[in-house]
Amino acid sequence: MATRLNPYLSFGGDARQAMEFYKEVFGGTLALNTYAEFGQAGTPEADKIMHGMLETPSGFTLMCADSPPGMEHTPGNNFSVSLSGDDESELRGYWDKLSVGGDVAVPLEKQMWGDVFGMCTDRFGIPWMVNIGRPQS
Q: Could you tell me which residue ranges the Glyoxalase/fosfomycin resistance/dioxygenase domain spans (predicted)?
């Protein structure tokens, strides 16, 4: 899989409704994963979206999540730029450069869903998410 760059939107509990709306607007394939699917069943966040992705026929990719507990949701500041793919050396190189002089919110390390993932804000205040998936066979 080639490395991909796309917007990642954060919502305050209505990610499902927003992404269903964007699917109506742009068409395409929508995949939504809840917090319950990743070990948080029985919590207030269980039915909220941990990760969503819309891939459109025009080649647009839009990703999203409902803000997790403890993370403030502020409309107007509710986006990140997402870098994802399976080329570990390429993506780690981007991470190393983006995080220099910035703030690391989530270190780039293996996560509960099996991928290596990190979040940082670069020295210019732009939030970045880097996800390194397992190579496709």
A: 5-130
Q: What is the CATH number that goes with domain 4-132? A: 3.10.180.10
What are 120-136's pLDDT values in tens digits? 998 878 899 999 998 77
Are residues 77 and 8 in contact, defined by beta-carbon separation less than 8 angstroms? no
Instruction: Return d(Cα 58, Cα 69) in angstroms, integer.
Output: 34
Residues 92-100 have a mean pLDDT of 93
Closest CA to 50 of 72, 73, 68: 68
| C-alpha distance from residue 113 to each of 19, 103, 109, 117 (Å) | 21, 23, 11, 10
Q: What share of the chain is helix, strand, coil (3-state, %, to 5)?
A: 20, 40, 40
Model pTM score: 0.74
pLDDT of 137 higher than 70: no
Contact 118, 108 (CB under 8 A): yes
